[in-house]
Write a structure and sequence with these properties.
two-stranded antiparallel sheet, seven-stranded mixed beta sheet, about 220 residues, single chain, Rossmann fold, alpha/beta, globular
Length: about 220
């Protein structure tokens, strides 16, 4: 049996995003919204319509790994396509790649601008960990982070007073019937954050693993 060696190289690739709202230069604030596992950017950004006030630019980056959803059709041509931010395979490179991608997205949106408007971040489901890692990278100041139906990435160091997430307004949002962010998951996250005196604003709504228009509008307007 030959010795198998693993290696990697960095390659350019095309990333896709979907958006609504005014052009970047005329928007009063930007919202970068992260979809969950199996979703696509255009579908998810449509679910964020509660943010549409004519002044906010809402941008949904799409995860770089797409796949055919099993069981959605008898042939690939008819199967539903979903996207995933990462898996356990080669996870460190996956994280580096999408943080770089998100930095480039904001750089592209802000090209030619003397200053950027306030940037707000919303992560949903699998997107909560992705979004929190990007906020924690500190490459851009973030005015608000909304962690919806998921948890902050568990490996992040939230203890330092200089941690970007400690200097960001954080909201944790959970549906009362969320089948993934269950009461046990929520309790563990709340205990973890309480143990390090991490400040956040908690919100609940009647519903399952989804966004809620009234709750989202209330948070955005606060």
């Amino acid at each position: 049996m030959p010795e198998i060696r693993s290696a990697s190289l960095t390659v350019p690739r095309t990333a896709r995003y979907a958006a609504f709202g005014p052009p970047p230069a005329s928007a009063s604030e930007w919202w970068i919204v992260f979809h969950g596992y199996g979703q696509l950017a255009a579908d998810f950004v449509a679910q964020c319509s509660a943010l549409d006030d004519g002044h906010r630019l809402v941008v949904a980056p799409e995860a770089l790994s797409r796949y055919y959803e099993p069981g959605t059709a008898t042939s690939p041509a008819a199967a539903r396509v979903g996207a995933s931010w990462m898996t356990r395979e080669d996870r460190e490179h996956e994280i580096v790649d999408y943080v770089r991608y998100l930095d480039l997205l904001v750089e592209s949106l802000g090209a030619g601008l003397a200053a950027l408007p306030p940037i707000h971040v919303l992560g949903f489901s699998q997107g909560t960990a992705t979004a929190s890692r990007w906020v924690a990278s500190g490459s851009r100041p973030i005015a608000r982070f909304v962690c919806w139906g998921g948890v902050i990435a568990p490996e992040l160091d939230l203890t330092s007073p200089a941690a970007p997430l400690r200097n960001t307004r954080v909201h944790l949002v959970i549906g009362t019937r969320d089948q993934f962010a269950t009461p046990d998951v929520v309790a563990r996250e709340q205990s973890r954050l309480a143990a390090i005196s991490f400040a956040y604003e908690g919100h609940t709504f009647e519903g399952g693993h989804r966004l809620d228009n009234a709750t989202l509008a209330s948070i955005a307007g606060s």
